[in-house]
Each structure stands twice: as C-alpha cells, then as structure tokens.
C-alpha cells in the first residue's frame, strides 16, 4: 500500500479507536440523502479493526463535506490541514465503499498533530527519559528499564489482529538477526493475552521477546496507533519513536541502532 505519512496517521486514528468516530458534524447531510452513500452505513471502530485501508482516493472514493469527490493532491492538502478526519461507510458485507471527510474536533486535531510528529520522528519525546517499565515475556523472562540500562532497547507495540503489525514482522525479524551479536534487546509489547499470542506464534515466527498484556505499558508510552516503534539509548532516553506502517520505518530503526552503537 502506498500511504503518505500523514494519511497513515489519520487511518490509524480511525482504525484503532484512539479517537471516537461518532462525533456529529452539522455540516454533513444525513447519509440517506446522499446518492453516493445509498445502501451504506457508517462503519464502527469494530468494523474497521481488521481492515487494511488504501486511502488514496482511487480504490475507495473519498468525498468532502460538501459531497465533492477528492483525489490526489487535493486529498493530500485536506489531510495535511489537520482540519478533517475520515468517516468510512460500509455495505452489507462490511466492505468499505466510500469515505467522507468531516471537520475534526479539537481533540482529534491535537491527536493528529501528535501522530504526525511521531511519523516524522520529531516527537517531543525524543531525548526524554523513557517511562519506567517492568515486564515478563511469554517465556518467563523478566525485563525492566532499570535492568536494561547500558543496552539499546528496541520496542514494538503491536497486537495479533493488527494486519500492518503482522505485515512488518519479517523485516523486524531481520533486524534481530542483524544485531544478534550486539548489546541490543528487542521487545514486542503485545496487547493480547498469552494464549492468543501462543496461537499466533504457532503459525508465525516473531523473533522479538514478546510481552503479553502490555496495554498499561502502551499507555505509559502514549501509544496512539499501531504499530508503534520506540528505540531507547544506553542512557534510557528515547532516541527514536514512530507510529504506523511505512516503508522507511525499518531503515530508520536500523540507522538509529547503528548510530547508538557507535556512541
């Protein structure tokens, strides 16, 4: 899928429920009066949870609040303004057939700005001391920020049902292989229970040390979309942070690790 960084952030906000999609906007006409929404209903967070959305304005038509179809640079401009958030409409088979941009709430605009900063690697968190954590992986091994001081920590926040999370696992496994002889620890913080992860790993290899039931740690790290990656330096400070599926993410994690190993 070809996403821009900003569109990835917006899609994440919608798909993973970090912001409610049910706020009403008076500028929108009721869906039954719009020809292009005939027979469709607004998707819930649950409807969208397991879907990959190619948000380019072509595969799934996107309409402005006035009902005009938008594509390409016009769509990009609207999304980059942080003024709009997409609402997805599905048919009886729960397939997404249309998207309508509505005016974003103040809360949504603030969240999008934070997500965009994370996507660009310019989050205010960079350089800050990482939040403390203590965790036990699925094999009973214990980890904490304090005990790992002096090592580089590469964190992946994910969950089994997240298709973008699963899609990048082979590339993450390669990172683990590349740095297996270095002082680098790879931790996968999953929101799922251990039993769900065990079932997933029976069919899928994930070389990170997987920590189940990690919602609290995700909250402490202000994770607002999945997947989220954090790299922590030897002094327990955040060196890199990004959210969303992007073709440059793995390379940036790799470059960050290389840079930190030289320090």
Outline of the structure:
By secondary structure, the protein is an alpha/beta fold. Helix content is 31%, strand content 21%.
What do you see in this structure?
This protein is α/β, with parallel strands linked by helices. The protein has two domains: 5-119, no CATH class; 134-262, Glutaredoxin (3-Layer(aba) Sandwich), CATH 3.40.30.10. The chain contains nine helices and twelve strands. It has helices at residues 5-15, 45-48, 72-80, 106-119, 163-167, 169-178, 194-201, 215-220, 249-262; strands at 41-42, 62-63, 69-70, 84-90, 96-103, 134-136, 142-144, 152-158, 184-190, 209-211, 228-232, 238-243. A five-stranded mixed beta sheet has the order 1-4-5-2-3. A five-stranded mixed beta sheet has the order 10-9-8-11-12. The chain has a two-stranded antiparallel ribbon with strand order 6-7. A hairpin with a 5-residue loop joins strand 4 (84-90) and strand 5. Helix 1 crosses helix 4 (106-119). The longest helix has 14 residues, at 106-119. The protein is globular.
What spatial order of strands do you see in the largest sheet?
A: 1-4-5-2-3
CATH-defined superfamily of the largest domain: Glutaredoxin
**Percentage of residues assigned to helices:** 25-40%
- What is the rounded distance between the termini? 36 Å
Q: Would you list the SSEs in sequence order as H and E?
A: HEHEEHEEHEEEHHEHEHEEH
By CATH reckoning, the class of the largest domain would read Alpha Beta
The low-confidence parts are 1-33
What's the rounded overall pLDDT mean?
82
Q: Helical region count?
A: 9
Radius of gyration of CA atoms, rounded to a whole number: 20 Å
